[in-house]
């Protein structure tokens, strides 16, 4: 299967049974939450993705449904050091094992290396792609070396001297109180 956009809904069980591979790319503009994260920038950037289904048998002979997802994109974010635009490469390689219920998924997810999800006939691959990219975005995006000089001082010396030169209205009252004006 070769798509430009990921299928809106994926029958993960059938996908795994067929050991299907789906590869494509999509515009960043199709992902609303990612566009919010980039503040509307990079709408023409591409998100390259691939999804591979796999059927495995566990130790007891029960089938396990797996989905392997790879995502590669570049997001224009705001550098938290210089406040300029920084292009952040995001690469995700994640595997998911599917089970039958929320309770089973919650119990197994804590001890499993892979993510454990609930098998759902209305499984949304685009939502999973968007979720994974959002989780891979650094908390504090920044350049390795900012392209502009970053002012790291807390106070501006010019501001401090201007503040001292500004007339102090209560200084006259202090002088009256101490008897120096007269």
Describe the structure.
28% of the residues lie in helices and 30% in strands. The protein has 182 residues and is α+β, with helices and mostly antiparallel strands. The chain is elongated and about 95 Å long.
How would you summarize this macromolecular structure in one to three sentences?
The chain is about 30% helix and about 30% strand.
- Largest beta sheet: what is the strand line-up? 1-2-3-4-5
Helix content: 25-40%
Order of helices and strands: HEHEEEHEHHH
Query: Helix tally?
Result: 6
Radius of gyration: 28 Å
Distance between the termini: 94 Å
| Quaternary status | single chain
Strand content: 25-35%
Please, what is the average pLDDT?
A: 87
Number of strands: 5
Name the descriptors.
6 helices, 182 residues, five-stranded mixed sheet, elongated, 30% strand, alpha+beta
Topology:
Elements: H1 12-17, E1 21-27, H2 32-37, E2 46-57, E3 63-78, E4 85-99, H3 102-109, E5 115-118, H4 125-136, H5 157-165, H6 169-178
Parallel strand pairs: 4-5
Antiparallel strand pairs: 1-2, 2-3, 3-4
């Amino acid at each position: 299967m070769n798509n430009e956009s990921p299928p809106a809904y994926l029958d993960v069980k059938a996908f795994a049974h067929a050991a299907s591979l789906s590869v494509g790319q999509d515009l960043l503009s199709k992902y609303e939450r990612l566009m919010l994260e980039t503040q509307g920038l990079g709408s023409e950037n591409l998100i390259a993705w691939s999804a591979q289904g796999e059927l495995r048998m566990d130790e007891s002979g029960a089938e396990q449904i797996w989905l392997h997802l790879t995502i590669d994109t570049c997001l224009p974010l705001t550098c938290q050091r210089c406040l300029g635009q920084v292009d952040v490469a995001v690469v995700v390689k994640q595997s998911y094992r599917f089970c039958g219920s929320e309770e089973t998924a919650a119990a197994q997810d804590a001890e499993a290396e892979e993510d454990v999800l609930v098998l759902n006939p209305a499984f949304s691959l685009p939502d999973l792609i968007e979720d994974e990219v959002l989780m891979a975005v650094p908390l504090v995006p920044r350049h390795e070396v900012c392209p502009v000089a970053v002012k790291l001082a807390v106070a501006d010396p010019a501001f401090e001297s201007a503040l001292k030169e500004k007339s102090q209205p209560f200084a006259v009252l202090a002088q009256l109180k101490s008897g120096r004006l007269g």
